[in-house]
Amino acid sequence: MIKICSLFSGSSGNAIFIKTERSKILIDAGLSGKRITEALCSIGENPLELSAILVSHEHSDHIRGAGIISRKFNIPIYANENTWVAMEHDIGPIDIKNKLYFTTENEFEIGDVSIKAFSIPHDAADPVGFNFFANNKKLTIATDIGHITKGLLEYFVNSDLLFLESNHDIEMLKVGPYPWNLKKRILGENGHLSNEMAGKVITYIAEKGTKKFILGHLSRENNFPELAYQTVYNALYEKNIHPGIDVSLEVAMRDRTGSVIEV
Fold this sequence. Notes:
The chain is built from nine helices and 14 strands. By secondary structure, it is α/β, with parallel strands linked by helices. The protein has a single domain (3-262), classed as 4-Layer Sandwich (Metallo-beta-lactamase, Chain A). Helix 5 (150-156) links the parallel strand 10 (137-142) and strand 11.
């Protein structure tokens, strides 16, 4: 059994909580320590009981509260070496015993969870997604993805649940208020995944047998939950896969905590 809850997910801040029988892990901490603490308490979890904070990459919407939570609750932070170098100044001093490293592509363990961090194409020092393995279940979290590769799909396949970025609607982004340089970055090879591409990926993974999907990291300016959901819904329906019957499809909210989902 693995439980997952999106505390917050979006361009303004990200934090995901997963729980097994012996481990409680926070993936990213991109909001204030106060807001993340309140979110954990709202689902009945004590921040003092966190086993670790995993950091996917150093952008502020993924690390803003990491240092504060580590210092306040004496929680170890795991990141790869390049991410530590990139984020260390921003998160502040961390007790040496709580400064831990993983190696991308190598499995490591936290309690009863085996974890593999895999590289993703994004404009950060060494960004990663995560596979989590516990009790014969596989859960995958992958956001901040500029483009999809065959290698990434291999990490997604056979997941019992896939949490995947659905950041923007391409047309909304093109006509929206962002300056051209930022639009170009988001649409680029190391930017973010669109609703349309999320739909294609989820359809492919659903055809391989995965039954549970969560859309995350939605843009505040260039997307909205109903549009992300409907775009992916339509992609699935075209392949005769019916959300709510054949698969479950949910959207993680940018500004509020979601439900706890058991895998």
